[in-house]
Amino acid sequence: MIFDQLEYGVKTMTHDLKTTVQQTQDSLKQALVLATSIKAIEDVRVQFLGKKGSITQLMAELKNFSLEEKKEFGPLLNQFRHDAEMQISQALDLLSIKLVEAENLKKQNFDVTAYIPGMLEGHQHPYTPFIEEIQDIFLSMGFEIWDGPELETDFYNFGALNIPKDHPARDMYDTFWTDKPGLLMRTHTSTIQIHALQNAVKNNKLPIMGIAPGRAFRHEAVDASHDFMFMQCEGLFVDKNVTVANLFATAQTFLKALFKKDELDIRIRPGFFPFVEPGFEIDMRCPFCKSGCSVCKQSTWIEVFPGGMVHPNVLRSVGVDPEEYSGFAFGFGLTRLAMLKYNIDDIRLLHSGKMKFLEQF
After folding, report:
1. Orientation of helix 15-34 relative to helix 38-49, angle to 10°
2. pTM: predicted TM-score of the whole model, two decimal places
3. Which of 84, 94, 97 is closest to 57 using CA atoms?
4. Around 142, how many Cα atoms within 13 Å sit in the side-chain half-sphere?
5. Which helix (H) or strand (E) holds 220?
6. What torsion do the CA atoms of 164, 167, 171, 173 make, to the nearest 10 degrees?
7. Is the pLDDT of residue 165 over 60?
8. Of the ranges 46-50, 54-58, 284-288, which one carries the lowest mean pLDDT score?
9. What does the pLDDT read at residue 281?
10. C-alpha torsion 56→58→62→63, nearest 10
11. For 281, which of 30, 75, 227, 271 could close a Cys bridge (C-beta 3.0–4.6 Å)?
12. How far apart are CA 176 and CA 199, in angstroms?
């Protein structure tokens, strides 16, 4: 963090300025803890980042530095201000979610005594045993199982994943925004990775490794291979000296265990995702055809395991030093893998409620 650099890396910085920086950091944290309303957080922002805010005044101290000191300390103080802006933005996002959840809780009217065990009969949805099998495979490799909210903020869905407001990669996502400013239905379960990383940093529990299965939502045109709601699973491993080889080995071990095959017809090719660098696509031969079909888009290949090395900006967004830690992240469509495993050729069957379909599982 910037404050550690100021304390240990800058030997010529005046004692008064170092003390002021530390006091400002502590005051900001305390003020955000005590801020329990949107207005209170806005007051904190003005107090620290307004025209007469304490951080703004601290930045003004640069004019009293020599040219060499400005070159050395200027970037550090700029990072200090950036970190403060990020902390305030995250506090506002988290408070917005809490307020919406509290409002929804008031509207709930659920009678927990309405269900009597054994009263209902039916079949498991294919997702149920499939997700359990996937969890068992990753648990055997030492991964944890994570969960998180489906209603998310801009920060967790885009900003922390290296997709800022002006980034062209946002064009890839057709998002369901709510009538609450800044709140949306998550477009991927990568959001849970950010929550997990934040908790790990807060509780000093790095390294971490886990998967996050769950629903994702996009404004998709519905056809045999696309739906507006689908199941996805994201995975993350952050530690020291993690390499691409670890990612490929994890993907290979998982796919072989899932499809119960010692050999799989797969290919690896470069891919772009804003939150990883470098990125890769791991494809599997389409089981429904030999020359192309609607499921594989006439290519005979189906993308099953995209991933890559966690982008340094993602690590920085949650306070992890990318010079010390590295990691890999991956994500795959649980829906797509379920279709492959059970030879389901139309995604719409999964939400159709047709008994003839469900009775097969």
Report:
1. 170
2. 0.65
3. 84
4. 7
5. none
6. -30
7. yes
8. 284-288
9. 92
10. 70
11. 271
12. 27
Provide the token pair at 135: 């969890």
Cβ partners under 8 Å of residue 196, min gap 6: 146, 208, 210, 212, 236
Give the model's pLDDT for residue 270. Answer: 94
* Secondary structure (DSSP) of 138-202: HHHTT-EE----SEEEHHHHTGGGT--TT-GGGGG----B-SSTTEEE-SSTHHHHHHHHHHHHH
- Sequential DSSP letters for 40-88: HHHHHHHHHHSTT-HHHHHHHGGGGS-HHHHHHHHHHHHHHHHHHHHHH
* The pLDDT of residue 306: 92
Residue of 31, 251, 67, 305 whose CA lies nearest to 141: 251
Residue 8 DSSP symbol: I
Cα–Cα distance for residue pair 346/339, rounded to 1 Å? 8
Tokens of 272: 């772009």
The pLDDT of residue 15 is above 60: no
